[in-house]
Each structure stands twice: as C-alpha cells, then as structure tokens.
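Dear colleague,

Thank you for sharing your sequence with our group. We've completed the structure prediction you requested, and as agreed, I am returning the results in plain text so they can be pasted directly into your records. Please verify that the sequence below matches your submission; if there's any discrepancy, let me know and we will rerun it promptly.
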Amino acid sequence: AAAAARLSSGAGGQPEAEGPSQATAMLRHLLLKLRATGPVTVAEYMREALTNPSQGYYTRRGGIGESGDFVTSPEISQVFGELIGIWYISEWIATGKPKAFQLVELGPGRGTLIDDILRVFNQLASLLSKCDVSIHLVEVSPKLSEIQALMLTGGKVQSNPEDKSAYMKGISKTGIPIFWYRDIQDVPPGYSFYLAHEFFDALPIHKFQRTEKGWREVLVDIDPEVPDQLRFVLSPSSTPATQNFIQPEETRDHVEVCPEAGVIIQRLACRIEEDGGAALVADYGHDGTKTDTFRGFQNHKLHDVLRAPGTADLTADVDFSYLRKMTQGRTATLGPIKQWEFLKNMGIDLRLQVLLQNSRDSATHEQLLHSYDMLMNPKKMGDRFNFFALLPHHRLAHPDKKHKPESKAPLPPVAGFGELLLK
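Please find the predicted structure tokens below.
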C-alpha cells in the first residue's frame, strides 16, 4: 500500500530517521548505478537486492527460521515435508514405479523440507528398494548450500571440480546421493520430480501501471528531494517489457509479471514432457486476480521495499494463471488449491492423530497442535499458500481413450488435488 501511495504521488515516503549505517553498501552501489544509467526496472532492483554476489540478501544471509526474517512451513512442522514426500511416492507408484527418479528442489532454503522428505523415503525403504533415488538441489547461495550440506549430510560433502555441472556433492545420512547446482539447466535429464516451495515468489518481477497514454512500466529511481533515498517512478514511454509481457486481454490496471518464472516453468514443462515425472509448486499467490503484491520482510515484519536494500527479503505473489499459460500446453496442470485443502487431502488429520498418540509430554502435544493450526488455519497459512502441479498429459487421460474407452483401467487419482477417501 505504501508503494502504491508513493507511486501515485511520486513522492518518496519519508521513513523514520536513520543513522549513516543504514546507507547500506547495496544502497551506495545502487545510487552509483542509477546516477550512471538512470532509473532501473523493479526486476533489476530485486535481482540486485537479493542476489548481488557480494551484497545481495540471499547471497549474504538468507534469513529463514525463528531468528531470520521469515518462517516457512517446513520450519513449522515436520508433517508438511512428510506429506510432500508421500505425494512424490504416490506419483511414482501411479506411473508404474520407474527404476530410478531424481528429486530436484529449486531454492531448498535450509534443507529442512528435503530432510523431512528423505526421512519418509527412509521409512518406506522397502517400497523404494529397487529404485535408484538421487537428490538434486538448485541453490545460488553459497551460505545456504553450506547450511543444507550440514543438515543433510552432516557436513560430509566435496566440491566437484571434475564435474562442471554440479559444484558440490555428498551422501545423505540415509545413504542417498545429493548434488548441488547453480542452474536448473545443469541438472541431468531423466525421470524427475521437481519441488518449488516458496521459490517463485522471490524471482524478480516487472511492474506495470495502466495510464491514459497506455501501459507504463514502474521503475526505481533516486528521489531528487532526498538524494540517498529511492522512489518509484513511471517510465515516460512504453518499455520493451511493456510490449512483451502485457497480455492484450489484460483487465487489471496494475500488473506484476515474472518472466524468469515463465522461463523456469517452460523448462520444467519440457523436461516433464520428454522424461516424465511431475512438479509440485507451493507458494502464496493468486490466479491472475491481484495487482500490487510487491513487499519486503525483515524480522518477521513488513519492510519498505525501497529502504536499506540487501537487508530484507523482497517478494511478490505468484501469478498461477501466468505459470499455467507458460507451460504452453506441454503438460497438464492441477490447482492452484489452498494449502489447507491440499494437506487435508494428503491425510494431515490422520498423521496428526498418530503423532499426538505417540507424544508423551504436554509440550510436544501443544507444539503439534500449534503447528497444525499455523499450517491449516485459513487466517494463518491455510488460505495464503497454494499448491499447483505439472504432470504429463497421459497421467490424467489415456492417450487413446476415445477409441477404446472400455479397455482401459481407470487412472489412479492425483493425491492432494482430490478428496481423500478412506477404504
């Protein structure tokens, strides 16, 4: 809202007085850049603030967890990761138990989610005994990849100079090989399951505003009134992004587009079409209805996106209608459906009952109920987060169903996206 107010007034909203230390190295870098080149797109600003090699928020710290700037679902409850692990096994069984699968996670955070999934794979080891499972993590942050390695392998990893694609490899505590990559392109082809949990929301967005003269891109510039402060301005004329990213049928007056998300979804769709597998995306977002969702988080509180860049997490809601469009029909898509609904369909209530019966002390009991409420309550994470899946077309419809409908056995339902029926 503050951003929108500044946009319409063109005035740099005055933050509370700050000492010279708040003129972060990243801000100084951006001021120099803006003086040299003029205003930059919001996407360029986000990319610098989050992933600049020396001063970016993720490359330097990446504050996940209680002591960081935001908490994610796997940090709240082990059940979240367990149910996602079961989703992949369910899809593996539904597609005839292929002899090998890769589990590829984009932006794995601290590795908590993959750790919970590996525990499920270990508990169901007899089921997976004839399957060759490997884990592939796509991570740009050196800091976070160290944290992941420590959690997943106990720190037993080696850098991988002879293999140009993976920069690090190790073996999980349960004996499964793990590889680290900087780009999804580097992950080897093959039957794969993809996981993107709170990944797409951190990718850089372009912002556009409808005006009387047509669409204009929102840019970031120096505030002439306060020379070491940033403000939003509108491009004087249409930009290349305006011409390429606004759909002709667009009805909203303010639109955010994430071209990088489009490219990644296209790559996933191509891989799933060629090699099989599935992708599961979990994030906060909307189905092409929201307008201004760009915001910052610092110490679990909302933070002015233009203040002290590099010290806060910047994020925007994922537009699932755009992701669906960008698959270009190469895969089928399911969702988005609300997190509470997906987890309910995955049997979270049954899992909670088992954990409550097995918990001996009241503190664990309380913790289980509290984390369940955080994940499921529509006022907390239950309604804010959505699940969305990419699957091969043949997973949802027999290719030759129209010719001989009676000869085909019904396809197993996709877990999580339909009601759970207990036999």
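Summary note from our side: Confidence is low (pLDDT under 50) at residues 1-22, 64-70.

Kind regards,
the structure core
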